[in-house]
Amino acid sequence: MKYGIFGGSFDPMHLEHIKIIQNAYKQLGLDKVIIVPSFNPPHKSKLYESFDNRLEMINLGIMDYSWAIIDNVEERLGLNNSYTYLVIEELTKKYGRPYALIVGGDSLANFHEWKNPEIILKQTNLAVFSRKGYPDILETAQKIKNSYGCNIYTFDNDLEDISSSEIRAMIMTGISRKELFLHEKISKYIEDKGLYKCFDYIVKKLKDSISERLFLHSAETAVYAVRLASKNNINYEKAFLSGLLHDCAKEDNYDASLYPNILPQIVHQYESAKKAKNYFGIMDDEILNSIKYHTTGAPNMSDLSKIVFLADKLESRRQYSNVSTCRDLADRDLHQGFLTVLTNGYNYTKNRSLDMDKLTLETILWYNNCKD
Ligand SMILES: [Fe+2]
Ligand SMILES: [Fe+2]
Questions:
Q1: Assuming Cys at both sites, which of 116, 290, 311, 349 could form a disulfide with 225, CB separation 3.0 to 4.6 Å?
Q2: CA 249 – ligand 1 centroid, Å
């Protein structure tokens, strides 16, 4: 039997996953695609839903395809054995040698960090699918071919560059855009079972305290923040909460006279950091700082702060002339994206002779003098 293996967290399974298995099946001429949900993925951090719920979501997503099957091999192997080479060994015993291990172009770049990559390449071929925004896949594939002397097939996908992390943040905030990325049966299962509710308390509290318009901006900022966080190995929960709460006091009637030297449009960043702590109970200084400087920036910012600064300005509802160029840049290089957006904001204010906040100026000077 000519089969391909497609592993992942599937937390949750989404439409892009389904597109991948359809394309792999057709383009590689497979008899079966075996889907292997992670039990305890070594490359990823926390899983948000139980193995059984993730399994059920995959079942719902593939029920129309007789050639797609799930194997719970990682669960059978147990907690400490969820490595790809062990999974392939087990599957080979059951189904014979696999034709290909299906991997994303983005994980191909880190393939050398996987456990025993040379064993994996003796066990099977790699089939690599491309994603928008990763044009250098063929080059990476060639490098791996040269280093390991193996076969790598590439197959075409017109995939959106969207991850489970972002879709999960859409589900957590309840924004309707999630439906674009989920199979309707999976969406219904998530709804019926009340999945991905770990931040529900904060989400509801925020929703009740701000306008619908500001909530949508806050939710989309959280989605964009986790997008950038997952590309830069930054903590998911910190990015989500910082993005979600960054404007939490923006519509409050705070006392601006407490901030005599600060421009009125800037004050909400300080008030939002205070409210995140006192009203939403956030005690993490890194989150509070990222909220505190999301409008002005500050010298020597953490990656989390850069992410929140960018997510606020690049979230999917933002529309200005060069927003997609800035998004592409931020996707590829967080620091360069940050510098570009910071400088654009500075130039916009300067060219229109608008009042410049002192801290924005300090931030610009600090980064202009910084050689890193
Ligand atoms: Fe803001
Ligand atoms: Fe904002």
A1: 311
A2: 9
